[in-house]
Amino acid sequence: MAEVSAEARIAAPAGKVWAQLTDFSTYGEWNATHTSFPKGGPANLVLAGTYEENMKLMGFPAEVTWTVSELEDGRLLTTTGKGPMGVNLRMSYVLTPDGDATTIRIDGEFTGAAVSLMAGKLKDSATAALVESLRKLDGLIVA
């Protein structure tokens, strides 16, 4: 298993951060691992809803089918995914209001036989991607 996390304080209210986070039409502008939604991003997030995403991790393309496993509008989005070679993923985005700003934390988890072979490199690569993604997300949001 490989676990990753990153956190940032964005100088905007949680509602604006949530709106950008869940605007799948602009996902590629901030998410460093995203390459495309082959069938289009989800129009509306709903518990147990699914969507497909093409990603690139450690330079390798991956197709992931995501399921929304936790959803609290404006505060929490957790998705679980099934990727290639039996890899399972979990991504959790938690928003915490902080005055006129918002702290956003992303926690990710990768499991499966293939992960154990490259857990260290995957953790480093995915953590760097999360940090870059939060930096780009911050740059898109106008307070």
Automatic annotation (TrEMBL):
InterPro entries listed in its UniProt record: Polyketide_cyclase/dehydratase (IPR019587), START-like_dom_sf (IPR023393)
Cross-referenced Pfam families: Polyketide_cyc2
Descriptive protein name: SRPBCC family protein
Source species of the chain: Streptomyces poriferorum
